[in-house]
# Entry
Amino acid sequence: MGAGWPSVWWMSDMKTSLRGLLPIGDCAWQLPRTGAMRVPGVLYASAELVQAMDTKVFEQMANVATLPGIVRASYAMPDAHWGYGFPIGGVAAFDAEAGVISAGGVGFDISCGVRLLHTGMPTSELENLRDRLADLLQARIPAGVGSCGRIRLSPREMDAMLKGGARWAVERGWGEQEDLEHIEERGCMAGADPAAVSDRAKQRQRDEMGTLGSGNHYLEIQRVQRIFDETTAARFGLAQDEIVISIHCGSRGLGHQIGTDYLRRMALEAGRHGLQLPDRELACAPIRSATGQAYLGAMRAGINCALANRQMLTHLVREVFAVLWPSVSVRVIYDVSHNTCKLEQHEIEGEQRLLFVHRKGATRALPPGHASLPKAYRDTGQPVLIGGTMGTASHVLVGCESSVERAFASACHGAGRAMSRHAARKRWRGGEVRDGLAGRGIVVRSPSLRGIAEEAPEAYKDVDAVVEAAERAGLARRVARLVPLICIKG
Amino acid sequence: MSSVGWEHFHHDADIGVRGYGKTPGEAFEQVALAMMAVVINPGDVRAYCPVDISLRASELDMLLFDWLNELVFIMAARGMVFGRFDVQVDVASIQLTAKAWGEPLQPERHAPAVEIKGVTLTELVVRRLADGRWLAQCVVDV
# Structure
């Protein structure tokens, strides 16, 4: 399957299979091809992470491997968990002509992602201002269920936003031109088709521009706690004990409704397209079909909505920082999405092919020299931003050459839940979680105590183990570890 | 458990909602309450504002998918929460007629935990159980 592992390794460790997976390298496992699978599954994780994974992940990897046009393998990242049809932490590439596109392979929160901002400020600046900064952020950043943004989009502006993404936001005064250089797709996803987005989706978004949302979304003030790679960290602008800002959110109600609309349409039309689906949730459409093309246009509009949303939140953060530190300039380090489907060129058995790469809960991790990278990161590789939880770390990784072969230049996206919301709510009280974190110097602000309980850090897997496995598997290299100081939750 | 009621069930990343009833309509009412309980405590809703909903689908389970998604849309687009439902399901024609009673969301009073992004096809089931009760369930993405 051409993952570039020495064949000797593969032969010598055949005997130590784990949960039906064969080891094919360090932190790399193969789910052998059986039944209707067109390609094998490949999972990147440590033995410990594999042991802890829900069996559903393996089932879902195998199901994805049955879809028409799938190329090379159905991949799962170290943070993989049970998703909808596709595993969360799944990567699958389909031939651009003969393949399919899947709404479930992208997810409801289209282009959910992480943006990292640089301040250049030492953590000591925050010493007496932590609560004040938390207050100002909480007042400025619309967060939580039912929160509204500062603008209401007219139908015409809605379409302009869906076409323009972060570029639209910058043109309307929500940020700087140079921000765009450090956003995937230079802040604007080409090929977006606002006409393929339903009125309902637009209606859900009308008042939601520049809002954080709820659930696992957050805005964090973080400290660079550890540097793994001095040279690359310096190029990204990351220095020990300096303050950075992370924004984790997506395409809000618009993306959710696009996901719902097309999941339904694809599920109902699957039979008509002659697709034999082992699980209805794998709902997809041939990429060349009318539904496939409509979803592509709508999904790309959803990507632009997420990029515009994170751009507007960046502007709000800058307004807050200008109040406390007028001379500090807040710069975009990078903005990367982890729920997308993108048309990419990859080399398959010596031949350049165009593929639609689905990444659901997986981050693109481009290697050094890739043409899509901004000038500043052309020789370092892409910053790969891994979100954490309220009480644990986030990580900055960098794309590397081996990731291209291993998983179409992809890496993990976060910790992944270890416990359901239901179980978390039974185990913890929001107030206790908040006070416990405060005792460790982490200020949490949220309109919902129940939301805090459901997002308790212990309800997630160990993010450090996830990124270590990603590094050992050759998906991306660790650059820096970030720890939270203030967390604004939805 | 009694013949009518709702519960949540486990899903790794999200949450499953399940309703039981003596009729399919009752099961649809209960699963809607289970979904509301993901967001708020349905008992905290002053259910004074009625919304009428009529739906038709090609399969009974897709009718459930549409029913719950209709509520998700109204909650998001109109900023409402619901505390009471009255649902009639005609199994033969796969049609639903419903009234949902609720009020505008007030974050301070309702203390919503999380918003629902969408209703999934995962674990989507509508069926009659051996004991005669109706079951309606699915996983919602939050």
